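Aim 2 progress update. The chain analyzed this quarter is reproduced below.
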Amino acid sequence: MDFDLQWLLLGLPVAFALGWLASRLEGRQWRREQRDAPRAYFKGLNLLLNEQQDKAIDAFIEAVQHDPDTTELHFALGNLFRRRGEFERAVRVHQHLLQRGDLPAAERDRAQYALAQDFAKAGLFDRAEQAYRALDGTPFETEARLALLALYERAHDWRAAAEVAMRLEKSGTGSFAGRIAHHWCELALEADARGQRDEADAALQRAREAAPLAPRPLLLAAQRLARGGDTARALAAYHELAQRQPEAFDLALPDYVSCARSAGQKAAAHARLLEMAQQRPTLDLLRALDALEEKPSAASAARWVELLRRQPTLSAALAVLDAPRETWSDAAAAGVREAVALAARPLQRYRCAGCGFLGHQHFWQCPSCLGWDTFPLQRLEEL
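Predicted structure tokens:
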């Protein structure tokens, strides 16, 4: 009994010493791993800042191997893969995060959003849609819906796009009224192409309800009425568009002129356009007036000269040049010269072949990139 007690008394200190030594070794190993992981992380960050992405990825992979439980390293690695176009590797990284049972809810939502971005960038739109829809009710819900909206618009799924846009507007994200109106206009065009006029009418009505002041529903309605032979109602729709959105009415002027001719309303249309041109002359308005007059006139030449005085553009100068020579005046010649000078000015410069720097004079050494003999000896208009 004494012999056993003696060995026990001797073994306790030895066991304690061994335990203490093991704990010291384990702690030292843990500190070394913790020290190595940040070092690899900072090495990867430094390489990334120096635009050495291949080496940065290697450094991050090393850091992940040292500390596989660190989610930030996984996110950094996955984002790097996505930016480089290595979508399959990015998907694997983010799916690995989602498979972890100890991942907090916030990090799981973040990984789900990153995975959806991977699928979208890779062109896997069906899988991206599913991944984005899985984010309903999460802090990434708004970002996911915005991404879905862009996804549906890209795929021309206008009905789904309109539904998502309406949900975004109801959630207070912002105003999507104009965008929703465009979605319904696209649906109206698709219905017309299928010969479903009632469905097209309903879609246009939804578009006007979504954005009463939007010009496109009015323009489409007028064009559809004109194609259907109801020129009286078509002209009324065009007049409403001109009153609400004069700038957008310019886009409809060729159709308006054609509709006015079909309805026998050339004189009334000419008077209306002339009144608008006096208040806000534009290229499209003057061209529409010329189309209604059908032959050159001194009044038409005077209108173009006045427009050229206000807006010295090449299109206005070309219209003046097309006018009969007897209608020319000193003001017309001066306006044409000014328009040509303005158009030529951007081309009367030298451009560096190295960085694209533009200068009105020739440089032997580029002031921007400091390269020698990078400026051609000719100006842009001479190349």
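The chain is about 70% helix and 0% strand. Strands lie at 350-351, 358-359. These observations will guide the mutagenesis experiments scheduled for the next reporting period.
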